């Protein structure tokens, strides 16, 4: 996420207001004030009227509280403060906000000259095109949206109109319903968040556990933050990791762990798994740390599912390290990812809540903390260079290659990595059909890897550089040199999915 | 010679609302215009919540977008 559009600003303003009231302990009493603070009579106005604007906002607030849309705001606030998270998917279409974009995919524009050749008419396999009022006309009842007319027109007079959400989804999981509002097919959706980022109306959003986490921070419980390796530079390009840790403590976290420590554990376990199963039991193995990728394989390529590594993700590995020390600790994962929220919900015994960097910064601002004014304390990573590089596409594969070179120097690792679910899917099909000579595959749903996730705050080009510098300064280079990770592995905390 | 001093607030509240986009916009200006600007970062301009905020030659401007800032720069630098 780099461009802070009006849609992004609006979402962040709402989350800041929610966090502010939650920290002040007056969320139930003042929740309705958000409607008037964020949408003022003076504007700016993006919808037809102030009432529509507030109706959209109400839905947005309820999702920001992780509550269902049929509740009243006060009731939703009450449940959120009590720690309740509604049993529902992570990503939702805010039906009030969806602009019901047109579904006519191919449109003839004014550029049509009603030429003599009529390539469009000739190219149409369904005879859906005729000339009406001196211009080509597409009969929607016959059109099958093949696109041949668009290709055939030498004036480029026929254009293709895509709904941004549909265009962004690599898995065909979002479509227009009968009333033209977008509908998510949850049997196909892997909660990657592409549609959320793409929608220019801000009509797709994810549930947030900000209030539930604030309630925990205010309780007597010890709450630990697990920061994903992409956290470097997220809260300002010049903000240092030590300042982030201090800010987290100021809002009530007992301590902060790096998920990259878990990444080192994962690298060691995943490499062992690779060495012992490839090529004996399976031709190739894939990573499992990107939850949207893992879910894509499960839902869309079930034949390949047994090739996915059974090693848990760095988030879960780190959660297990914390819970082993303190079984009643509350663990909050904070990362660039929306799909991690779904993954966390599926392993609630290890991870209590998952937030995005965006949500954390909204919490900091809501708590009145300006991270740039926090004095810098010295900070050393608990992970190796390779563990910290998990944040970038290709990082997991590199970590496994480096560790395999130490553990099984004779084994040849033929690596391939892809970004974007469509690319991952087609590469996997090819690898499975032995058209690509690959025995280890890294799949990442987001462009650039985790640093390009939908919950980030900083341009991924900047984060990429900063993560590189931070990783380069790590004491250990590869996972095998990380003594803490090795000691944790020796404890055997069930590092594999059943 | 700098003809324009721009202080952009990069405090948390302003960063959240897009201060980075403003910095990147200025850094990407053509050298002839960029050289006229003395760009400084500020940690808080005491107008949190109305951000992103900046000061141009000492004058506070709130809720700035890259487009708005571009217009202001062009008005000053011709």
Mean pLDDT of chain B: 92
What is the terminal-to-terminal distance of chain A? 35 Å
Beta-strand residue percentage of chain B: 15-25%
Q: List the uncertain runs of chain B.
A: none
How many strands in all of chain B? 4
Tell me the count of domains of chain A.
Answer: 3
Query: Overall mean pLDDT score of chain A?
Result: 95
Regarding quaternary structure, what we see is heterodimer
- In CATH's first tier, which class of the largest domain in chain A applies? Alpha Beta
Largest sheet of chain B: 4 strands, mixed
Radius of gyration of chain B: 11 Å
CATH superfamily of chain B: Glutaredoxin
Number of helices of chain A: 21
Give start-end ranges of low-pLDDT stretches of chain A.
Answer: none
The share of residues in extended strands of chain A comes to 5-15%
Provide the spatial order of strands within the biggest beta sheet of chain A.
Answer: 10-9-12-13
Shape of chain A: globular
Provide the domain count of chain B.
1
CATH architecture descriptor of the largest domain in chain A: 3-Layer(aba) Sandwich
How big is the Rg of chain A?
25 Å
In CATH, the topology of chain B is named Glutaredoxin
List the helices and strands and how they pair.
The complex is a heterodimer of chains A (498) and B (78).
Chain A: H1 6-24, H2 27-30, H3 33-38, H4 50-64, H5 73-81, E1 91-93, E2 106-108, H6 119-123, E3 129-132, E4 135-138, H7 148-152, E5 158-160, H8 164-168, E6 174-176, E7 182-184, H9 194-198, E8 204-206, H10 210-218, E9 223-227, H11 241-250, E10 255-258, H12 259-277, E11 285-286, H13 291-300, H14 314-325, E12 330-335, H15 339-345, E13 353-356, H16 357-366, H17 385-388, H18 395-407, E14 415-419, H19 421-432, E15 440-444, H20 460-472, H21 483-490
Parallel strand pairs in A: 9-10, 9-12, 11-15, 12-13, 14-15
Antiparallel strand pairs in A: 1-8, 2-5, 3-4, 6-7
Chain B: E1 4-9, H1 12-16, H2 19-27, H3 31-34, E2 37-42, E3 54-56, E4 59-61, H4 66-77
Parallel strand pairs in B: 1-2
Antiparallel strand pairs in B: 1-3, 3-4
């Amino acid at each position: 996420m780099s461009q802070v559009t009006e849609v992004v600003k609006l979402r962040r303003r709402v989350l800041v207001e929610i966090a502010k009231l939650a920290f002040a302990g007056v969320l139930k009493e003042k929740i309705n004030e958000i409607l008037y603070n964020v949408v003022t009579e003076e504007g700016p106005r993006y919808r037809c009227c102030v009432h529509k604007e507030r109706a959209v906002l109400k839905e947005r607030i309820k999702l920001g509280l992780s509550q269902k849309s049929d509740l009243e705001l006060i009731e939703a606030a009450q449940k959120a403060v009590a720690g309740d998270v509604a049993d529902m998917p992570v990503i939702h279409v805010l039906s009030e906000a969806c602009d019901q974009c047109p579904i006519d995919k191919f449109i003839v524009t004014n550029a049509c000259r009603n030429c003599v050749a009529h390539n469009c008419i000739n190219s149409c396999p369904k005879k859906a095109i005729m000339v009406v009022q001196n211009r080509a006309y597409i009969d929607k009842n016959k059109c099958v949206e093949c696109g041949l007319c668009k290709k055939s027109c030498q004036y480029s007079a026929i254009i293709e109109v895509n709904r941004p959400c549909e265009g962004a989804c690599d898995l065909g999981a979002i479509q227009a319903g009968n009333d033209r509002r977008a509908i998510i097919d949850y049997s196909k959706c892997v909660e990657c968040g592409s549609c959320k980022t793409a929608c220019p109306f801000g009509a797709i959003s994810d549930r947030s556990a900000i209030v539930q986490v604030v309630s925990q921070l205010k309780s007597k419980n010890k709450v630990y933050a697990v920061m994903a390796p992409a956290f470097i530079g997220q809260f300002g390009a010049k903000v240092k990791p030590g300042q982030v840790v201090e800010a987290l403590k100021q809002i009530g976290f007992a301590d902060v762990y790096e998920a990259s420590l878990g990444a080192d554990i994962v690298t060691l376990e995943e490499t062992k798994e690779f060495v012992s199963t490839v090529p004996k039991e399976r031709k190739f193995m894939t990573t499992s740390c990107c939850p949207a990728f893992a879910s894509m394989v499960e839902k869309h390529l079930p034949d390949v599912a047994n090739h996915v590594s059974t090693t848990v993700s760095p988030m879960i590995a780190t959660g297990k390290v914390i819970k082993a020390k303190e079984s009643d600790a509350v663990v909050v994962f904070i990362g660039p990812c929306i799909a991690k929220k779904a993954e966390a919900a599926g392993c609630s015994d290890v991870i209590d809540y998952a937030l995005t960097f965006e949500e954390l910064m909204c919490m900091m601002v809501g708590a009145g903390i300006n991270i740039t004014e926090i004095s810098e304390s010295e900070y050393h990573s608990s992970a190796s260079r390779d563990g910290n590089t998990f944040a970038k596409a290709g990082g997991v594969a590199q970590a496994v290659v480096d560790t395999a070179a130490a553990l099984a120097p004779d084994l040849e690792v033929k690596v391939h990595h892809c970004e974007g679910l469509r690319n991952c899917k087609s590469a996997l099909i090819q690898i499975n059909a032995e058209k690509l000579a690959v025995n280890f595959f890294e799949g990442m749903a987001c462009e650039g890897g985790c640093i390009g996730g939908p919950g980030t705050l900083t341009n991924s080009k900047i984060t990429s550089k900063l993560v590189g510098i931070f990783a380069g300064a790590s004491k250990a280079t590869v996972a095998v040199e990380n003594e803490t990770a090795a000691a944790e592995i020796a404890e055997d905390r069930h590092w594999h999915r059943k | 010679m700098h003809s324009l001093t721009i202080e952009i607030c990069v405090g948390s509240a302003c960063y959240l609302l897009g201060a980075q986009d403003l910095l990147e916009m200025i850094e990407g200006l053509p050298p002839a215009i960029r050289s006229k600007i003395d760009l400084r970062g500020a940690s808080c301009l005491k107008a949190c919540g109305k951000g992103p905020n900046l000061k141009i030659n000492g004058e506070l401007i709130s809720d700035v977008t890259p487009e708005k800032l571009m217009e202001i720069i062009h008005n000053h630098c011709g």
